[in-house]
Specification:
By secondary structure, the chain is an alpha+beta fold. Helix content is about 40%, strand content about 25%. Helix 1 (about 5-20) runs parallel beside helix 4 (about 135-150).
Length: about 160
């Protein structure tokens, strides 16, 4: 059985190989969410919320249907957006203002995607297990987002800033 760290390393290598020849932001967000869903165990949702019209709006994802719009400072995603930091939540039901898009989700990690000094989106990953995410996930998912930023043309999303 592959160790968790090796699986996360393989996931990031696969991301780089998958999106390196393709710069389109929509294609890369779509494929990267599928990659997360394929490589990460015990998750029930992986995808993006894109900042537009003063809200986070649902973008490419894998999993059950989701909340379409999230306000700044609301829930884990809105908090990660406004605080510009990675949010790792062991029990979402104890998080003040948690938005329960899927009642089966118990833990969550959200990473802001910062391009040109602006948060243009967040990567949101949910799990039906409490305390699913740890510092190893934090480290490799931060690298995952860095690869995504380096290999993707986000300029069309930047026009509003």
């Amino acid at each position: 059985m592959i160790k968790k760290e090796e699986k996360l390393q393989n996931m990031n290598q696969a991301l780089k190989a998958l999106i390196e020849p393709e710069g389109d932001w929509l294609a890369n967000l779509a494929n990267s969410s599928a990659l997360l869903f394929e490589f990460m165990s015990d998750i029930n949702w992986a995808g993006y919320y894109i900042w537009k019209q003063d809200q986070l709006v649902l973008g490419p994802f894998q999993g059950k249907t989701a909340c379409v719009r999230i306000d700044e400072d609301k829930g884990v995603c809105g908090t990660a957006y406004s605080q510009r930091k990675i949010m790792l939540v062991d029990d979402v039901h104890e998080f003040p203002g948690h938005i329960a898009c899927d009642p089966n989700s118990k833990s969550e990690i959200v990473l802001p995607i910062i391009v040109g000094g602006e948060v243009i989106a967040v990567l949101d990953i949910d799990s039906p297990k409490k305390s699913r995410f740890d510092e190893l996930d934090h480290e490799y998912l931060k690298e995952f987002v860095d690869i995504l930023i380096d290999e993707t043309d986000f300029l069309p999303l930047m026009e509003k800033f």
